[in-house]
Specification:
Among the domains are: 41 residues; 77 residues, no CATH class. The protein starts with a strand and ends in a 24-residue tail after the last helix. It is mainly alpha-helical. The longest helix has 40 residues. Helix 2 runs antiparallel to helix 3 and helix 4 runs antiparallel to helix 5. A two-stranded antiparallel sheet has the order 1-2. InterPro entries: RecX_HTH_2nd, RecX_HTH_3rd, Regulatory_RecX, WH-like_DNA-bd_sf. Modulates RecA activity. It is found in: Cytoplasm.
Length: 241
């Protein structure tokens, strides 16, 4: 709107706004015009949630992949160990820990192997009792020490050692003593007896079995309850200086 002054010049009339009304940008004088304030656009909550779910899914996949990797590594380590020899649960656990595997991976692998029968302390104890006695000629005490060294539970040891027949142990002791005595002929009888006694005790035989087997092997008095030739019926005795 324009008005004419007394001098004939035209001027813009001052624009007045009703209370509460906003002036459009560029309308009216700078001193009286209010500027519009733009409101921020609302955040898209759906996009944010989708992004969070995506991150969680990625982390879950990474965690699962790491767990599978540890599982495969534990399986490879245990398989390599069991291929070399039979192992007790304690021995295999020690091997797995030496490879810096975490507790969960170790426990899961040990439980898996026990579940499929690849580690069985009771079966291992029975095998060791038989092989240590028959092949190595060890007595009861040495066999028990070997089972304890491999950290097999005492209850399992007690059951396994009962399978060792006392007569079989005695007969095996006589065989071992005779064989060893044949290597002591260069000594006098007392020295040979002392050496043979120490040898038999180290192999884990009881003092009673050691005494009888040594006497038989060196041609001394025959043990009570046996024939003059010993349990096998063969004559014992070695010539000494």
């Amino acid at each position: 709107m324009t008005t004419a002054s007394h001098s004939g010049e035209e001027h813009l009339a001052t624009v007045s706004y009703l209370p509460g009304a906003w002036a459009a940008p560029g309308v009216g004088s700078a001193s009286t015009a209010d500027t519009l304030v733009s409101e921020p656009s609302p955040t898209n909550s759906t996009d944010s949630n989708d992004s969070t779910d995506s991150n969680d899914s990625t982390e879950s996949e990474e965690s699962k992949g790491l767990s599978n990797k540890k599982t495969r590594r534990a399986e490879n380590v245990s398989l390599a160990g069991l291929t070399r020899r039979n192992m007790s649960r304690w021995e295999l656990e020690k091997l797995l820990r030496s490879r810096d595997l975490d507790d969960d991976a170790i426990t899961n692998e040990l439980d898996r192997l026990e579940g499929v029968g690849l580690i069985d302390d009771a079966a291992l104890a029975e095998t060791l009792v038989r092989t240590q006695h028959e092949r190595k000629g060890l007595g009861r005490q040495s066999i028990i020490s070997e089972l304890r060294r491999r950290h097999i539970d005492q209850e399992i040891i007690d059951v396994a050692i009962e399978a060792l027949d006392a007569d079989d142990e005695r007969e095996r002791a006589f065989e071992i003593a005779e064989k060893r005595a044949s290597q002591l002929s260069r000594y006098d009888k007392e020295t040979a007896k002392r050496r043979l006694t120490s040898f038999m005790l180290r192999r884990g035989y009881s003092s009673a079995v050691v005494r009888d087997s040594v006497d038989h092997a060196l041609g001394g008095s025959h043990p009570r309850g046996s024939s003059p030739g010993g349990p096998s019926g063969d004559g014992g005795g070695v010539r000494f200086r």
